[in-house]
Amino acid sequence: MTIRTNTRNLLDTPPVPVQAKLAAAWTSFMFLYLYVDFFNLYKPGVLDGILDGLVWRFDVNPTLLTVMLASVAIPALMVMLSMTLPARVNRATNLVVASLYIPYSMFNAAGASWDWAFFYGLSIGVEVLLLAFILRSAWTWPRTPAVPAGPATPDLRQDVRQ
């Protein structure tokens, strides 16, 4: 007699490095940030304002466009920096930049009417959740215990001349 048993192919979930989590979160933030600005163009009067030389209440000029470019370039750079900076600098950079982007993201709702509350609430809410994930990931960055040096501890360095 043969007994059949169903064995599942269990999927392995290897640990994801903190750097990859941060880069993925910054990538998601950057795409959402760009799409929110893009969808904002569909609001009545926005394109007419741009054609008249106004963005929100600001005159379109080189300074405004440079600030706008920097506000998009910083998350783009954070994708690369999150993967390449050394851990200590990486952690500090992510904590500072994500902390500064929370109020900056919330500024998008300034002057908005209640008709657009759901649009801004959803977009800012998701942006802040992504930034909170970045802050949490950077804050809880795993630490490697220091190896005490001394005669009781073997030398962990390998001789390069071998």
Give a quick rundown of the structure.
The protein is mostly helical. It has helices at 18-40, 46-51, 62-84, 87-106, 117-139, and strands spanning 54-55, 58-59. The protein has one domain.
Can you characterise this structure?
The chain is mainly alpha-helical. The protein has one domain (18-140). Helix content is 59%, strand content 2%. The chain is built from five helices and two strands; from the N terminus they run ααββααα. The protein has helices at residues 18-40, 46-51, 62-84, 87-106, 117-139; strands at residues 54-55, 58-59. It has a two-stranded antiparallel ribbon with strand order 1-2. Strand 1 and strand 2 (58-59) form a beta hairpin. Helix 3 packs antiparallel against helix 4 (87-106) and helix 4 runs antiparallel to helix 5 (117-139). It is flat and about 75 Å long. It starts with 17 loop residues before the first helix and ends in a 23-residue tail after the last helix. The model has no long low-confidence stretch (mean pLDDT 87).
Q: What layout of secondary structure does this protein have?
A:
Layout: H1 18-40, H2 46-51, E1 54-55, E2 58-59, H3 62-84, H4 87-106, H5 117-139
Antiparallel strand pairs: 1-2
Helix pairs in contact: 1-3, 1-5, 3-4, 4-5
List keywords for this structure.
mainly alpha; 5 helices; 2 strands; 59% helix
